[in-house]
TrEMBL record:
Keywords: Kinase, Metal-binding, Transferase, Zinc. It comes from the Eukaryota. This is MOB1A kinase. It comes from Eulacestoma nigropectus (wattled ploughbill). Gene3D superfamilies: MOB kinase activator (1.20.140.30). The keyword Metal-binding applies. PANTHER family: MPS ONE BINDER KINASE ACTIVATOR-LIKE MOB. One of its GO terms (molecular function) is kinase activity. SUPFAM superfamilies: Mob1/phocein. InterPro entries: MOB_kinase_act_fam (IPR005301), MOB_kinase_act_sf (IPR036703).
């Protein structure tokens, strides 16, 4: 039984599907195929002739789904009791605000924060004016800044998992999965300069290590 007030494991399934047969679906398949080659630096590059916004949109949806699944494997260890604040090690603590419903940042437990965060991202991804799924519908002018905010926040979930739950990840033998997903994420945000270096500070050493192996 899950503690009350936490998301049931049912809701921690990727809820955002890219429609089959769509151009975005083709792009996702392309991304998966290049990932299979093992060269992540190459896999994140914009495919020739493609629209940058669309490439970023498809990958953002994919990272959301991956993080949803990764966090889903450790939700039972991330509780109000174990994680009363949303932190990434002793030096970094996050307070939640989304600018609309919660304007002033609030201090809350990690599961609550991640619930707010994932729900907020889900709402952005489901907004057809921000993430159009129909062919020919243009991306809004502020798309890049929205995508950057989403990715900045998704990074915090990786940071929390690495700092507070890595032992659980190891016990579940999920570390290879987590590391590959995070490395892909980092190479992607580096390729298009999507997250400020200061925001990446909680995992700076890991990021350096991932990068040096791959030069």
């Amino acid at each position: 039984p899950l503690p009350s007030g936490s998301r049931s494991s049912k809701t921690f399934k990727p809820k955002k599907n890219i429609p089959e047969g769509s151009h975005q679906y083709e792009l996702l398949k392309h991304a998966e195929a290049t990932l299979g080659s093992g060269n992540l630096r190459q896999a994140v590059m914009l495919p020739e002739g493609e629209d940058l916004n669309e490439w970023i949109a498809v990958n953002t949806v994919d990272f959301f789904n991956q993080i949803n699944m990764l966090y889903g494997t450790i939700t039972e260890f991330c509780t109000e009791g174990s994680c009363p604040v949303m932190s990434a090690g002793p030096r970094y603590e996050y307070h939640w605000a989304d600018g609309t419903n919660i304007k002033k940042p609030i201090k809350c437990s990690a599961p609550k924060y991640i619930d707010y965060l994932m729900t907020w991202v889900q709402d952005q991804l489901d907004d057809e004016t921000l993430f159009p799924s129909k062919i020919g519908v243009p991306f809004p002018k502020n798309f890049m800044s929205v995508a950057k905010t989403i990715l900045k926040r998704l990074f915090r979930v990786y940071a929390h998992i690495y700092h507070q739950h890595f032992d659980s990840v190891m016990r579940l033998q999920e570390e290879a999965h987590l590391n590959t997903s995070f490395k892909h994420f980092i190479f992607f945000v580096q390729e298009f300069n999507l997250i400020d270096r200061r925001e990446l500070a909680p995992l700076h050493e890991l990021i350096e290590k991932l990068g040096s192996k791959d030069r």
